[in-house]
Amino acid sequence: MQTRRIKVSSKVCCIGSLFFAIADTAHTVEPASDNGWGDMAMYPTPELFNEVLADVTLASNNAPFFTQAIMDDPLLVNPFRLIFSELKSQPSKLKVEMLVYAFLIKLTLNQYTIKVKDRSRKDTSNIHRVKEYIHAYAHQDVGLEELSSIAGLSKYHLIRQFGSVFGITPHQYLIQFRIQKAKQRLNQGDIPAQVALSCGFCDQSHMNTYFKKALGVTPALYQKQISS
Most exposed: 114, 115, 124, 134, by fewest CB within 10 Å? Predict the structure, then answer.
């Protein structure tokens, strides 16, 4: 079994840990076996952290300084791994953005206690505009940036308010809507491969994954069942 080991002072980072290359902190990197090791790396800029925290605190210039070089918290490690796992399956832009955004929020909130500013609104018309936009452009690669712009909210508050209104994230709503559109097309006898592309999925395999997760059968089997 291969193990990654990174030494920071007297601490050792092994497989399953998050390692932060902190400026002005001496560290060495070496394999724990002759077989070597691999890693997954992300390079968020201070500006990106400022943007993420500004969504939470409504302040600016508040990127965190990570004093802890090694973290073994599964609540941080697992979301980090999920990002790279999903990248292997041609995910939508919205899904990648939400995974990265959620990870950075958890990471930064883990550093210190932040009092979240609540900008909730009784008027939910902006959230329903986002819903209508998803309906109109579900066949395209919708992004979190454009949805937050339509809502007139930061990304953080868009996700919170959308969840408050519909009980799910914008990405989950997008997938559900695509599946419903796919069912309509399949009911009409359209070919699954054509349905996948017209409904915004990367390909038929991509549609199969979500369709089976939601309905328990593949699109082809679903179509066969309704026609028999």
Answer: 115
Give the residue range(s) of CATH 1.10.10.60 domains in the chain.
125-227
Put simply, whether the predicted model's pTM sits higher than 0.70 gets the answer no
The angle, 0 to 180 degrees and rounded to 10, between the axes of the packed helices 155-166 and 125-137 is 90
**Helical H segments across 112-169, by residue range:** 125-137, 144-151, 155-166
CATH 3.90.1110.10 fits domain 125-227:
no
Render pLDDT for 176-217 as a digit per residue (tens, 0 to 9): 999 999 999 999 999 999 999 999 998 999 899 999 988 899
